[in-house]
Every structure is written in C-alpha cells, then in structure tokens.
Amino acid sequence: MPPTVSTDQGSSPGLAAYADVTASETSLRRFLHGLPGVDQVGAEARAAQLGTRSIKTTAKAHALDLAITMVDLTTLEGQDTPGKVRALANKALRPDPADPTCPSVAAVCVYGDMVADVKAVVGDNVNVAAVATAFPSGRASMEIKLADTRDAVAAGADEIDMVIDRGAFLAGHYLQVFEEIVAVREACQRADGTHAHLKVIMETGELQTYDNVRRASWLSMLAGGDFIKTSTGKVQPAATLPVTLVMLEAVRDFREATGVQIGVKPAGGIRTSKDAIKYLVMVNEVAGPDWLTPDWFRFGASTLLNELLMQRTKLTTGRYSGPDYFTLD
Amino acid sequence: MARIDVRKTYKLYIGGAFPRSESGHSYEVQDSKGKFVANAALASRKDVRDAVVAARKAFPGWSSRTAYNRAQILYRIAEVMEDRRAQFVQAVQQSEGGTAAAAGRQVDEAIDRLVWYAGWADKLAQVVGNANPVAGPFFNHSAPEPTGVVGVLAPQSSSLLGLVSVVAPVIVTGNTAVVVSSYSRPLPAVTFSEVMATSDVPGGVVNVLTGDAAPLGPWLAAHMDVNAIDLCGVAGDDELSTALEVAAADNLKRVRRAPAAEPDWSADPALSTMTDFVETKTVWHPIGV
Question: In this prediction, does ipTM exceed 0.90?
Fold first, then answer.
C-alpha cells in the first residue's frame, strides 16, 4: 500500500495559537531564539548510545521490511535519462524481482522534469516525489521557485521536496524563509483542493549548529511543511544520527504543542542496513512508534536499498548475498 | 630479577588492518608439546563477511595491476620474510615441533616458493594462454584472467610452507583471498599477516582469519560474493568437504577439492594451483582489411 497523502493540516486549531509568533520578523526571531538550546555532547552521546541496540532475527526481518517501505528511491543527477528513471521506477515497484514478498518502496524521488516518466511506470502504486525550488542550492528568484513547484505538481508529483534559502536563514531573515515555505506550500495546491505533500529540506550540513537545526525545524513546521528533511545529499555532512535526533525531538514537541504530526526524512549518507536500523530505533525511542510508518518517516537514499535487499536475502536464504545479484542504480 | 613474559593476544588481518574478532572471542594456542604460547583471535562468521567485503573492495585495484608489478610485490613479501627469518623459524618450530634446522628448511622453502610464484606472474599467460587458429578472418586468442575473491582454507598441519603454497598461487594471478589459517597452528599465519602489512601488498588482497575451518567453511562456501574456494584445510574430512562443495555449487564457485590427506608441500607445485583460480577469456578480433 502506498502511503496516503494527508489532508490539509493548516487549519488545525493548535497551529492557530502560533499565529502571532509568525506575524512579524521580531516575534518569529524571539520565538526561535527562545527555543531551548541543544546540548551538543548530550545529543551525540544519546544518538551513539541508541545506535548500540542489538536488533536480531524476527525483529531484524521486520525492521528491514519496514526500512524498505520507507525508502524514497532517489536519483538526482545531471546525467539522469528517461530510461534510467524508468528502470529506477520499476525497481521501486518490485525491489527484489526474485522475491514477491518483498514490499515496494515509499516513493521515487527525481527532478521535476522526470516526474511524468516515473508516473507512467508506477501509476498510483508508489508515490512520485520531485525536488523543486532550484534544488539543490535554492538560489533563484521566488517566481522561478514557485514555477518549478507548480510544474512538478502539474506533472503529477505526489510529493514536493523543497530547499529552504539557507543564506537567508543564516543571515537571520527568518520571516523571509517562513514566507517562502508558505508560498511554496500554496503552489503545491492542486485544482481539486488536495495538495502535494511538502517536504522541507533544511540542508543541516550548512546550518552549522544543532540549535540552528532545531530552529529551522520549528520554522518549517510552523510554515506548514508536512515533512522536515535533513539534506539534499549534495552537501557533506548529510544526514547524521544526532541531527536526526534533534529533528525527531522537534516533531515530537511540535505535536505535543499543536496536535499536528510532522514527518521526518533523513537523506544522504545512509548506506548500510545497520545504519537504517539505528535510525528506526531512534525514531521509536525519541519520537515514538506513531512515527514508524512510511507516512511519517522516510529514508532518502539510493545505494541503501541494495544493502537492505542483500541483508533481507541473507535472512531468508541463510547465506551471504553479493552485489552481483541486485541491479545497479 | 626474572623478567615477566609478555603474553600476546594476536588479532585478525582484514582489509590491511588488524581488528579483533567481531565476536570478541580468542583461543589459546599451544606449542607442539602442549605448552601455552599465545592467544589467537577466534574468527566468527561476521569476520568472514567483513573479510569478503574487504577482499571484494581490493579486487579491482589488485587485478588491474600489471603482472610485472604483482611479481615485484610477491618478491617483496619473500624479501621481508627473509628479514624476519628467525621469527618464522621460531614460530614454525613452536607450532610443528622438530629441530630448529628442520623448521629453518620449511621457512627457506616457503620463501623460495614465493619467489617461484612471483616469477609466474608475467609468464602464466604465455603458458596457458593461446593464439587459436580459427576458420575465419579473425585473430582469436585466449588469456587467463583472475576469477575474483577466493576463499582459502589453509592446511592444518603445514603452518607456513602449506599456507604460502595455497595463498601465493591465488594472489599472483590477480585474485584476492580470504584465508582461514590452521586452527591449532595459527602463529606463522599471524606473522605472515604482519609481513604482508609491511610489504607493499594492498590492504584487502590477503585477509587472514585465525579460527576453525569447520564452522567458518560453510559461510565462505555459501557466500554468494565469493568466486572460488580452496578446501585444502579440511583434507581428510570427507563429509565436511562434500557439504562445502554442495554449498559452493549454489553460485557456481570454482572449487579446488580437498585432497584425501595433506600433500607433501616440498614437492614442486603443479600449474593447476594457479589455473584452478583463473577464467579463460577468449577474444575474437577481426583482421583489418
């Protein structure tokens, strides 16, 4: 089952309480800087400690299948051809053709101009996500960013991955970033009243501190993002466990404060199934089991899927598998 | 005042590094008279897994070196072994018993064998390759190419000469190796790893696991990313070697079958020690008009 696209959450009564926070640059700054600081050493130690959990046998099999259903299978290269994205879309539908019990992934993530090619293959069985707003740098005029978004939505994208303007964020122009997200969110609206799921990429590798990650998370959530996403995958470091920990705390606190649930998507740098399982443990321990579904947690990855499939094959056949037995992406 | 012994706990050799076993286990190694010598790491299946990954990673680099360069590196291993001859003699004598002179002869033969195989690196293609006469306007020629990652269960009794005699022919043609050493006599293999770490052999080309071939063999034989396996280390155990051959058949591994008993390693090796682990590539090249 593909994850459902949730209905509009902007009218939630909980969010209304924050209307005056986002009313002006000053109030927004006061609010974001009033968020409690992140204990860097504590966050890193907590993330490392959660990474030591041992997940074996049936729990591991469950975790691997869950992780596969959470993968946003991604290709974001200048050299992407229609043939390549079609092959990737087929892989998204049936990641392991040799094993019909293997679940589909959550979505295929491509550039906006490739959406139609993917959609033609996957139909409604797997979501199609498109990166927009001058991905990956986000350096373009607002009109171009909005046109980029509308194009992708019109081509049939179920989800939009937008990048925030990190320059504006680091310069302290929070309201500008906020209004951009709100505008892109409006551009995600479809004629029939539904809207494409909006994932907000914060590019945590460029935000410098965990405090900034927490601020950017709250900013994105207040602006109406359905998901907060760590990175574009084009900047090192990309997703790390401590950064994701801070974001998971943010979505947990946000739901407590407003009643609105927001998803989290770490992307980039997650390559082994062991890493993926560490993230799942952290989701369960920090945000809670409510987030352990593809509707609320995703992995942005390309090579991770083959690793998950190899581990899955190892569990079902009892022998180690090799990369020769899975498709190259 | 009597000096206190430095009691050693050796580690594995995987990907050019010396990690402890993933299991954390080690076992006591005794000399030929049953006296404690040192602790050796007891490799687990996950060490096999890691070693295969390291060997696979090293394969493209190693196999694309020129044959001449591989010869130089094998010769370099022999040179470094020669430098550490005394240590090898002691390790072999401790493991296998006998006189220092007998152990010295084993070490000399092991070094000579490396030099012998080093010489084959750029000659094997001339001997087993061929220009094939075909009925058509083509140059047609065949050449041996390395098969990939080779699992090697090293001999149980000949701890150094036997080890060198199964490892050198595997790597000289460009394969990378995951070696399970003799269980009761692992120390010469440990010293051999230290030699390889310091003699220009790229990390991951030879990975040495000290441990028991009986539990490790099936994981290596069934591993889908291993291209060939040498079963010498389970010589004499028909049931196990048959089971390993069956497991190896799943991905059509090349198998060098276990002999009925460990051979006499001082005899000149056959070419098949190398050709068992190569693929013959045949090229049809149109003759230009």
Answer: no
